Amino acid sequence: MNYLAHLFLSGNHDLLKIGNFLGDFVRSKDLNDYPEEVQKGILLHRKIDLFTDTHPIVFESKRRLRNQFGHYAPVITDIFYDHFLALNWHQYSAISLLDFSQDFYRLTECYATLLPEKPLHVLRYMKRDNWLFEYRTLKGIEATLAGMSRRSKFDSKMEYASAELKKNSQEYQQEFHLFFPVLMEEARQFRVKNL
Q1: CA distances from 4 to 20, 104, 133 (A)
Q2: How far apart are CA 41 and CA 190, in angstroms?
Q3: In this structure, how many other beta carbons lie within 10 angstroms of the beta carbon of residue 189?
Q4: DSSP of 121-165, one letter per residue?
Q5: Fewer C-beta neighbours within 10 Å, C or N terminus of the chain?
Q6: pLDDT per residue over 115-155, tens digit each?
Q7: CB–CB of 55/144 below 8 Å?
Q8: Distance separating alpha carbons of residues 142 and 83, to the nearest angstrom
């Protein structure tokens, strides 16, 4: 899962959202540098990633991408799934996607002192181009994949993945809708146990 799903799966917990956003930026040895609820958000992020990476439904999406994109297939799958979450947002949330996005950007301003430089750098671009809201469009996904391809150390070819999304959109969307409710329940159980 990418940024949108991680934030959504945090529920209505501000510091959990901040931690979930930080999940890829904080090393385990630095976990205790953060308030307890932020730590739990980081741990939730890792739980979501592990659950997603090992789920058989997600494996099908990754398998379809593996021949062309190799070890970048999981990253592309995460982006595709965020696209389908954004595209079908009304099925999962009573709050509009635009309001959800703007609320998160405001939240990061309130807790900016908790954010290291690298996530702050990402956040500047995220806010400027409204990534969370733009995930709903193919143009937004193309921009995301192109940006990730530019930042990757190797020739990932991720900038070409939107063609695969167009070609097999129905299959990816079906897999997303089968998987996401299961992941929502997994995240809900984490929140119930830990908050």
Answers
A1: 10, 10, 9
A2: 10
A3: 11
A4: HHHHHHHHHTHHHHTTSHHHHHHHHHHHHHHSSS---GGGHHHHH
A5: C
A6: 999 999 999 999 999 999 999 999 999 999 999 999 888 88
A7: no
A8: 11
Rounded Cα gap, residues 59 and 53, in angstroms: 7
Residue type, 161: A
Provide the whole-model pTM.
Answer: 0.96
Q: What is the pLDDT of residues 73-109, one digit of tens each?
A: 999 999 999 999 999 999 999 999 999 999 999 999 9
Q: Are 161 and 145 in contact (CB under 8 A)?
A: yes
Identify the CA nearest to 38 among candidates 92, 110, 99, 97. 110
Give 94's Cβ-side CA count (13 Å radius): 2
Distances (CA, A) of 151 to 25, 49, 99, 159: 15, 21, 29, 11
